[in-house]
């Protein structure tokens, strides 16, 4: 669930970031995809870390 949350938050944040900088539709798509991938990877590593430390 952390991975999906990171994916959605990253996509929204990236699109809004590109829009604030005056980007067009494809710019917003690219920024959204890049931030989504980045935050999904961070969420994946966080999930693995939590699973390994809490599951014993």
UniProtKB/TrEMBL annotation:
Identify the domain of life.
Answer: Bacteria
Q: Where are the transmembrane segments?
A: 33-50
Q: Which UniProt keywords apply?
A: Membrane, Transmembrane, Transmembrane helix
Entry protein name: Apolipoprotein acyltransferase
Q: Identify the species of origin.
A: Cypionkella sinensis
């Amino acid at each position: 669930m952390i991975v999906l949350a990171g994916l959605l938050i990253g996509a929204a944040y990236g699109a809004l970031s590109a829009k604030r900088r005056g980007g067009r539709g494809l710019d917003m798509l690219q920024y959204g995809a890049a931030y989504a991938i980045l935050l999904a990877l961070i969420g994946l590593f966080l999930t693995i870390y939590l699973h390994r430390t809490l599951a014993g």
